[in-house]
Amino acid sequence: MTARVLLPPAERLPLRIKLANGIGSIAYGVKDNGFAALLLLFYSQVLGLEAGLVGLILLVALLLDALVDPLVGYWSDKTHSKWGKRHPWMYAAILPMAGAWLMLWHPPQTSSNWLYAYLLLFAFLMRAAVSCYEIPALSVVPGLTSDYDERTSVTRWRYIFAWAGGLAMLMLAFGVFLVPSARYPVGQLNVDGYGLYGWTGAVLMVGAALVGALSTHRRIARLDSSPPVHLPLGQTVRKMARTLANHAFLILLGTTLFNYINVGMTFSTATYILTYYWEMPQAGFLVYSIALFVGVIGAFLLVGFLQSRIEKRTGAVVCALVSLAFGVSPYLLRFAGLFPDNNQPALIPVLFTLVTISNGLAVAAGMMITSMAADIIEASQEATGERTEGLFFSAYFFTQKCATGIGIFLAGTIISASGFPARARPGDVAPAVLDHFALYFVIVLTVISLAGTAIIARFPITRAQHEARIAKLAALATDATGGAP
């Protein structure tokens, strides 16, 4: 019985399952966009803390989170309840996740030293709560189906909803919450708007996370009814190390590290770049948010077209390289004096066309890479005889978060190294400071992007290998059960 149920069928899933599972990722999208796009700006430019130290604090919160992720992954693999392995964790994390999010955007009026400590505490608690929800939620995906292309389809829906949640909050921030007022003539510095942003995100997190958990509850809770086997601590650690030493998984972690460093750096600097480098009007921020989401929709359609026609590895490499070319082109053209000036009408359409294409291709590459993570589960099962989705996805998710934190730290370092003043107003920053800021950003973006692409080009699992492995495991499962249905 156990061998049979450990291999999910290679089947197409109902659209309702994909949609509802995707909706659950909105909670992560809200959190990720807030951390990447606004948290550094809020605590440095609005509250007056030093940007480099804020980036360092967010990185330290991630290092503390290192204690949480492997435990969540391991113990969710070992959880045995009437609600299955993953869902008890998901339900328990929802309210703490929303509560920590609220506290981040409602800091007390206190000294700078206490604000640093406050940020560290609630950034850590927020990340820990997200781990308790998102690691089990990611672990659900390979349990839904073992079909090579269908896993990509599930991943596409998770991506588009995660981006939709994050960008919807970003559009609300720039269009509703962070708008100029008599007290705050620069909308991005409107402290009252950040409080409303926090409440809206908390409500959205709770609703989306509940939908995501409930949508797969019955299907996944029945996946494995066998009780877990607990080993002594030393054997457990050695077994975890052997499992995570899987060659394909190490390649995936390497490219994930570099890709998410870029994600953290790009989104943490985006508000600075739009506000000070491109001197965007308020409407420009809304157009930026829309441009990002148009790119995500394009990625969703592109991957849907490519998923049955190309290897995931090949698609990821090509999309990543072309994305980089479009991503750096506005800055290279500006350095060469060939890009529209900030006061020209052509700036917004030209800039955001390039942003849309670059972001869409980057998201397409990310969809394919995340889908590869699910295919590693059976490769490990073939080698070890066990499915350890929680362990794999805890390491994968932890790498994402650490890399994003490193990216945010790099963003703060770039801002500090360029000599960026605190509480600066658009138009008042020296051109030399802005040039250094853009140059450092382009150099770091290019180096890290090329490193991540070079690593994923070595991913060893192809469609043919995966399908042969599934057939082999299915045959072994049938032999173990004597051909029982």
What Rg, in angstroms, do the CA atoms define? 22 Å
Number of strands: 0
Low-confidence stretches: 1-5
Strand fraction equals under 5%
SSE arrangement, N to C = HHHHHHHHHHHHHHHHH
**Number of discrete domains:** 1
- In CATH's first tier, which class applies? Mainly Alpha
Structural class: mainly alpha
CATH structural fold name: Growth Hormone, Chain: A
> Termini, distance in Å?
10 Å
Tally of separate helices: 17
Helix content: over 70%
The main pleated sheet reads as: none
User: Would you identify the CATH H-level superfamily?
Assistant: MFS general substrate transporter like domains
Label the CATH architecture.
Up-down Bundle
Mean pLDDT: 84
What form results from the Cα inertia axes? globular
Describe the structure concisely.
Helices cover 77% and strands 0% of the residues. It has 17 helices and no strands. The model is unreliable at 1-5 (pLDDT under 50).
How would you characterize this protein structure?
- With 485 residues, the protein is mainly α.
- It has one domain: MFS general substrate transporter like domains (Growth Hormone, Chain: A, Up-down Bundle), CATH 1.20.1250.20.
- Helix content is 77%, strand content 0%.
- It contains 17 helices and no strands.
- The chain has helices at residues 2-5, 15-24, 26-46, 51-65, 69-78, 87-104, 112-144, 148-177, 191-221, 233-244, 247-277, 282-306, 312-335, 347-384, 389-417, 431-456, 463-480.
- The protein is globular, with a radius of gyration of 22 Å.
